[in-house]
Amino acid sequence: MYVITLSDMSVKTPFRPATVFAALGLAALAFFSWIMFNIIWPYTSGRLDIDFLLTKQHIIHLLHYRIAFYLHIFPALLVLLAGLTQFSGTLLRNTPAIHRWIGRVYVFSILLVCGPAGMWMAWYANGGTFARLSFLVLSGLWWWTTWISYRAIRTGDIRKHGAWMIRSYALTLSAVTLRLMQFGLAMYSDIDPETAYRLVAWPSWVLNLAVAELILRNTAWFSRIYRK
Prior knowledge:
The protein has about 230 residues and is mainly alpha-helical. The protein has helices spanning about 5-10, 15-40, 65-85, 90-95, 95-120, 130-155, 160-170, 175-190, 195-200, 205-220, 220-225.
């Protein structure tokens, strides 16, 4: 007869810091996605005199700007949510069809809709030429990194696809970091909103891209998830 000993009962599942880090990261992304949803939802009313659009009253009469604005913000939220699932090794290995379909939503939303719309909006960005140039570069890189990732998976280069998709999603998250930086400056400084916008225009996405490069170059989880 087998007797359960105290030593048997004391066996514990090994602590995995990477798993905890991934869970915390996913929770943070879900939280910020919810915040973005609450920021975007009021625009479903069709009103042109609310929130961000209050700063665009001098150009809000331009039909092409209004079209670009709505084509950018609504699919961009979908893109943000889609990206939450795309870096799960469990989803990728166990349900690859779901990974592929969500990936198609992500890629084609950026390449065909919110990416080009973002480029058009960038021409009218607040903060002057300095900020406008930042958003033009951001929009171009967002489209380009997504395109490279798409072309890589079409040719079967899984590792290249994964690497460029991480860069693409880092740029997607610039919508979150931009607002976090704006909020921080508004709370802890006396800088006026227009100056603050100029200050955060470049760091809001350059820092994200730098973090993506650190992940790609210095962590092992990439190799475990994207493997042939």
